[in-house]
Write a structure and sequence with these properties.
single chain, alpha/beta, Glutaredoxin, 21% strand
């Protein structure tokens, strides 16, 4: 991290291509990566860079490879993701998500990840602004007593910070 508050925000997802919850959330994660960009005229917040740390959970039937991760990212055929061809997952190809090979679980262990998907929203200065605690709907980002998604976290925190409030 460079400590520069004008740098980009980071949304980091820990995921497994054979995790049914990760496959279901792939549509929303990909869509969010297209929305929260400087090049989107409808988004007036800071740039958010999206990353997916792809692992292989120690669960029977969860076997992955770099080729399967690429098929998940690109929605290409020939590999199975959570019991279906990777090309059949919802959403579009993840053109704006950078995938990280964590098949050996080194990153997952270092970050003490207990399940997938788990999301972190990281400020430009490297401080973790929000974490989902293992699901897409956990965490009260705006203090209203409701559980929020990573979309809510981005909209509230990145827009709030961009307006000079955080």
């Amino acid at each position: 991290w460079d400590g520069n508050s004008s740098s980009n925000w980071v949304m980091l997802e820990f995921m497994d291509t054979d995790c049914p919850y990760c496959v279901r959330s792939a549509d929303l994660y990909g869509e969010a990566s297209e929305i929260f960009r400087d090049s989107n005229p409808e988004w007036n917040g800071a740039q958010v860079d999206f990353y997916a740390s792809a692992t292989q959970l120690d669960i029977q039937g969860h076997e992955t490879s770099r080729a399967e991760i690429a098929a998940f990212r690109d929605k290409s055929t020939g590999y199975e993701c959570a019991g279906q061809d990777c090309a059949n997952r919802d959403g579009s190809a993840h053109d704006y998500v950078t995938y990280i090979d964590d098949i050996d679980q080194d990153n997952m262990d270092e970050w003490d990840i207990r399940g997938t998907p788990t999301y972190f929203l990281i400020q430009p200065d490297g401080i973790i602004a929000w974490v989902s605690n293992g699901g897409t709907n956990l965490g009260d980002v705006n203090g209203d007593g409701e559980q929020n998604t990573f979309i809510d976290a981005i909209v509230y925190l990145v827009t709030y910070d961009d307006a000079g409030g955080a």
